[in-house]
Each structure stands twice: as C-alpha cells, then as structure tokens.
Amino acid sequence: MKSTCYLLLASLLAWTLCIPGARAAEPVKPLKALLVIGGCCHDYKAQKDILTQGIAARAHVEVSIAYDTDTTTSHLNPVYEKANWADGFDVVIHDECSSNVKDLAVIDRILSPHRKGVPAVMLHCGMHSYRSEGFPNVTPWFEFTGLQSTGHGPQAPIGIGFVADVGPITQGFANWTTINEELYNNSAGKLLDTATALARGKQTTKSKQGQETNSDYVVVWTNNYRGTKVFATTLGHNNQTVADSRYLDLVTRGLLWSCGKLDGAYLKASK
Fold it and tell me: What is the pLDDT of residues 31-50, one digit of tens each?
C-alpha cells in the first residue's frame, strides 16, 4: 500500500512540474550596458565606480566601463576607434566630456549604433560634447541628445521639479534640491520637437558684483532619436550628486525605460 502511495505522489509531482508556470521562474538575463566615460573637468575616476555600482544595486544590469584617463576636451575615447564599438551591448551610457572632438566622420561612427536602434543614456557633460560645425545650432549630436546646451553658470543649489503625468520613469519621485551644482542652459529656449521634458531645474546665482540671476531650465528629458529611445539629464557634476540615491534611482529607471525593461523583473527590490 505504501509503495502504491509513493508511486502516486511521484507521478503527481512529475505531472505538476510539466505544467507551465509550475517551475520556479528562470533568473532574469541582465542587460548589458556600456559606460563611456572620461575627458575634461570631472572626477570620472570615482564616478565610473559610483555609477556602475549604483545601477547594479538597483537593477539587473551589467555595466562594462570604457574609461578614458585623458583629461582634455579633444581626446577621443579609445572605445570609439572601432566601427563596431557597441556590438554586444543593449544600451550605451554616454558620460564623456569631449567638446573639441569635432570630426563629423568620428561623430557619425559614434552615432551609428544609435541610428540602428541601440538605446542611450546621456549624462551631464555628454550634452556638451562633439561640437561640430554648425554649433550652437542643431548639430548631429544635438539631434541625438534632444536639447541644445552651450554652457552653465556658477555652481549653486538646483531645485528640481518633476513634470506630472509624463510616463513611468519619474512616477512617484518627489521634488528635491541638490547641493551646489552646475545648471546647464537650454540655449534655444526649449527642447527639440522629438523630446519630452521630465523635470526642470531652478537656480539662483549671484555675480561677484552681487547681481542676482534666476534661471529655469529643463534638466531631465527623453528623446526619440530616429526611433531610438534616449534618456538624458544634465545633472551630475559633483560626486555627491552622482552618489545621491535619488540621482541613481533616476538614472537607473531611465536606463531601463530606454531598453523597454522598466518593470518588476529588472528592478531589484529596494533594501
């Protein structure tokens, strides 16, 4: 009798395992991201690790780093020397500061994977890079970023206000104020028609003569670049801002959105 019961239980278990959904869920295959970082004016040596570790702690994303130790604005990150530089990656994070790399053939090589559908995340000085002929009007790089930005004023706190009802990236985010930071201008006064604002930044600065200036610019947005999703923010000059949990949450959610993976499967549970 016992042997018959054991056989019935074994058969029931085998049958249950054959039912779709009865097996344990397979682990999520992490997204592969390439972080292109380096150049002038920022502590990229530290920020590459802050970003990589911060994103990995929040989502199933494996970040490979292409770090250029050159600290000038005219040096091309070596990763771009190959035509197939983005092969094997699901998304590219552009965090370089290379304003004086102006060769259109090189810029075309950088943009080529994105024109073929590879999503992008644009951070801070990535917006001020690749100022080719025609700058400050719409250059190939500005078409990619979705916003023309040509400079910034002195560092001061930025009050960040999120735009309501613009999609899932910033859903539930509360307005906050940064430490002293750079507020990048919107030189044309608005985003390109392909872009959508997610947050604005307000900043009050004073000149050496005590003259007060109040500025209000878009600081977070998305762009539809020829059918490719781009998430962008001009925030993130100082290490303390980059390491802020609110900033890392924003960048991580923007990255997942660009890949069409902003869901519970790819977001890790907050601790």
Answer: 999 999 999 999 999 999 99
CA atoms of 233 and 73, how far apart (whole Å): 20
The DSSP element (H or E) to which 50 belongs, if any, is: helix 44-58
Report if residue 227 sits inside a domain: yes
Is there a domain that residue 212 lies in? no
Round to whole Å and give the CA distance between 78 and 36: 10
Count of structural domains, the chain = 1
Residues 6+ apart with CB under 8 A from 72: 39, 40, 100
Which of 63, 71, 68 is closest to 93 using CA atoms?
Answer: 63
CATH of the domain at 93: 3.40.50.880
Amino acid present at 214: N
When the pLDDT of each residue in the chain is averaged and rounded to a whole number, the result is 91
Give CA–CA dist 38/72, Å, rounded. Answer: 9
| β-bridge pairing 212-225 and 91-97 | unpaired
What is the secondary structure of 156-215 as a DSSP string? EEEEEEEPSSS-STTTTPPPEEEEEE--B--TTSS--TTEEEEEEEEEEEE-TT--EEEE
Angle between helices 44-58 and 245-258 (to 10 degrees): 70
Question: How does pLDDT run across 9-33, given as a tens digit for each residue?
Answer: 344 334 343 444 434 567 889 999 9
- Domain encompassing residue 114: 29-150+185-198+218-258
List all residues 6 or more positions away from 9 whose beta carbon is below 8 Å from its beta carbon: none
Please tell me the least confidently modeled range out of 42-46, 110-114, 231-235, 263-267.
263-267
Residue in the structure block whose two tokens are 């560092």:
155
Q: In the chain, what is the straight-line distance between the N-terminal and C-terminal CA atoms, in Å?
A: 50
Query: Does residue 233 form part of some domain?
Result: yes
Q: Is residue 24 part of a domain?
A: no
CA 172 to CA 106: how far, in whole Å?
40
